[in-house]
Write a structure and sequence with these properties.
Layout lengths: L10 H12 L1 H13 L2 H7 L5 E2 H7 L4 H14 L2 E4 L2 E4 L1 H8 L1 H14 L6 H7 L14 H4 L7 H24 L6 E5 L5 H9 L4 E6 L1 H11 L8 E5 L15 E5 L7 H14 L5 E6 L8 H18 L8 H10 L2 E10 L3 E8 L1
Parallel strand pairs: 4-5, 4-7, 5-6, 7-8
Antiparallel strand pairs: 1-3, 2-3, 8-10, 9-10
Bound molecules: S-adenosylmethionine (SAM).
């Protein structure tokens, strides 16, 4: 990784960046308003000719003042440019409007994180997800997931699924290279990956482990497929060390799961995997490590997502640096036998064996 090793900005670029940070919540809300009120879309539709303020505000039933302050903010943010009183869209504006990843990230930031983040400093001091109370009264977000109101729940699932969905097809190929017979999908969530496995291999049996609320959603989804008879469900609160995992599987699969836990909790989960899996079995871990990203914006997105875990999810987990994570794998009695980077947008698959 070559980024984050040098301070490459000039003093002028640095003070400019500092102002962007100083006004970041306003930049974010203004951008969202420009997107959601249809202003950016109208500027995009006007193409190279551009569109004037006077053409925009009546058509969108906004006041002249309201459209003007937002468009002027859009100039400063870099979403639009203005020539001869006409606004045209920039490349950044186009991404805000049309790029699916950007939309998923913005909706997640707004609906799930924005209000809570006001208390981030308290979360750091207390080691607790102090922002979670803006969504509901649960010890962690995972107990609340099945009960979140819309659009918050949609934004959470869209964020989670956007990243994992893009990696699942590549992951399936890796996972079925050695034709596993029985897979434990730990943290299987709404059953998307389990369903893909059942569809990929006509003989494989699946066992899903997750909290009861998520397993109820998974069961409902899998009932609509022809594969129900090859799935078993094992409701569990994995934070309870006394709850052991079912034995008999030759592969354990954990995707975007271990990042939901602290270092000690990860070691406890992996030790229970060690106990559950046969000696020749494999553990497949699919994670997003910020130090394994090809591009700086990928690492940036993960570093910011870590703070969602700090403030909203549970107060003690993160998108890990792979160096930290590998120490935990070792401590639990496993070695990484194979590592595949650049799976989907941002994932790494680690195939672990008992030491
Ligand atoms: C980020 S999601 C990952 C879902 C899925 N594997 C994927 O790749 O999209 C994490 C999953 O871990 C589950 N989980 C979190 N805390 C848990 C706990 N204490 N016990 C059992 N499952 C838990 C959540 O319910 C959720 O389904």
């Amino acid at each position: 990784m070559t980024f984050f090793t040098k301070d490459t900005k000039s003093a002028f670029e640095a003070i400019t960046n500092a102002q962007f940070i100083a006004f970041a919540p306003i930049v974010f809300q203004a951008t969202k308003s420009l997107r959601d009120l249809g202003i950016l879309a109208m500027v995009e539709e006007s193409g190279e000719n551009g569109v004037t303020l006077e053409e925009i505000y009546p058509k969108l039933k906004l006041s002249e003042y309201g459209a003007r302050v937002l468009l002027e903010a859009g100039l400063g943010i870099g979403l639009v440019i203005k020539n001869d009183h006409k606004y045209t869209i920039t490349k950044t504006g186009l991404f805000i409007l049309n790029d699916r990843m950007t939309r998923v990230n913005m909706d997640f930031t707004h609906d799930v994180c924005y209000e809570g983040m006001f208390t981030l400093t308290d979360s750091i001091k207390e080691g607790k997800p102090t922002g979670l109370k803006t969504l509901g009264e649960w010890p962690t977000i995972y107990e609340g997931l099945a009960h979140l109101p819309k659009p918050i729940q949609d934004s959470w699932f869209n964020f989670d699924h956007f990243y994992s969905d893009g990696s699942f097809d590549q992951a399936l190929k890796q996972l079925f290279k050695h034709k596993p017979k029985h897979i434990l999908d730990i943290g299987g969530n709404t059953g998307k990956f389990t369903t893909k496995c059942l569809n990929y291999d006509a003989d494989v049996k699946m066992t899903m482990l997750d909290l009861p609320g998520q397993l109820a959603m998974a069961k409902e989804n899998i009932a609509k497929t022809p594969f129900s008879d090859r799935v078993t469900y094992h409701p569990i609160n994995i934070l309870d060390d006394a709850q052991r995992f079912p034995k008999g599987a030759d592969v354990i699969w954990m995707s975007q799961f271990l990042d939901c836990f602290s270092e000690d909790e990860i070691v406890s989960i992996l030790k229970r995997c060690h106990e559950a899996i046969a000696d020749g079995g494999s553990i497949y871990i699919m994670e997003t490590f910020w130090d394994r990203q090809k591009f700086e914006p990928g690492a940036f997105s993960l570093q910011m997502t870590s703070l969602y875990f700090t403030n909203i999810a549970n107060g003690n987990s993160q998108m890990y640096d792979s160096e930290v994570f590998n120490r935990l794998i070792d401590k639990a009695g496993f070695k990484v036998a194979e590592q595949i980077d650049n799976v989907g947008i941002s994932h790494t698959i680690q195939i672990c064996k008992k030491k």
